[in-house]
Amino acid sequence: MEKFRFLTSGESHGKCLTAIIEGLPANLEIDIDFINFELKRRQQGYGRGGRMQIETDTAEFTSGVRFGKTTGAPVTLVIYNKDYENWQKIMSVNPSDETYEKSFTKYRPGHADYAGSIKYNQKDLRNILERSSARKTAIETAVGAVAKLFLKTFGVECTSKILQIGRAKTIEEMHAEIDNAKQAGDTLGGKFEVVYKNLPVGLGSYVHWDRMLDGRIAQAVMSIPAVKSVSIGDNHAYKMYGSEFHDEIFIDNEKIYRKTNNAGGIEGGMTNGEDLVVKAVMKPIPTLRKPLKTVDARTLEQTEAHFERSDTCAVEACAVVAEARIACVLANEFLLKFGGDSMEDYKNLKL
Ligand SMILES: Cc1cc2nc3c(=O)[nH]c(=O)nc-3n(C[C@H](O)[C@H](O)[C@H](O)COP(=O)(O)O)c2cc1C
Fold it and tell me: If you measure from the C-alpha of residue 134 to the centroid of ligand 1, how many angstroms do you get, rounded to a whole number?
């Protein structure tokens, strides 16, 4: 059941990234500065590579918005890739431009190269890299920013923070860890947390497996490139007694409240009025300057993996992408629960 739907297209070094969003109510105010601010947040973070110095991502609306407000029509967003200038011939759609420049055949371990080349019957691994690259998370962040604008009108707020990079748990240690990895031609992953506040009780449902909000959030975050685990609430649940873990229910002046939030804001696949707390683990970036061993798909000889300009660590950016993905899931839940063709339909809504 999807009411807030979107598809994206675009390659890492193609002309642009595009998204079409369907289901947004009319008369939602579009704050383009906020969307571009979110794009900037995704580009930042300690340990990012050279590509982020080339791109200054800004979103452009090409449909569905007029005079600063949505009209109810599908919304199209575009982000142009500045680097395309240098890749026009290589990424050309024209058969007469065919070239082997920037082609590669040495599978990169940890990437989609091996399985993707077999699945799509591609000899040039460039054709796998271009779409499997996390570059597409830029346009997803823009879509998530639009979803956040919708959620903000209900007072919903979002924050995220980095919990760990490699073995480091404080900012100074994290930066030192990233500096060391960079110097050694190595990479790092880490763990982050996203929190959504002021959600109404009852988003999601227990009645069917595919309506459980925890499952929907897990799918949305797990499918971010390099994310390898997602948890809701306290992920030490496995080593706690039931009496320690479960959040007891109290009442004061007819108002229900909890003293703890180990459930992370979801019980029975529904929001329970507490903060939604999502944690996720990102694996180390798989492109290493100190190359990993692999096989060349063309010669079938043992060799070293292809290297292309890359991040040392992108956990901060990943957290921003996770905020965006969760915003899309929550926007969908608001639309399912409250409906609404225009923002005016929510005027008398009491959450
Ligand atoms: C924001 C972000 C930036 C990333 N940057 C890079 C990068 O610069 N180099 C790289 O090899 N992988 C990068 N990755 C991770 C790969 O895209 C990912 O590991 C790969 O596509 C394989 O997907 P999987 O790890 O989910 O199996 C990034 C991921 C995210 C979310």
Answer: 5
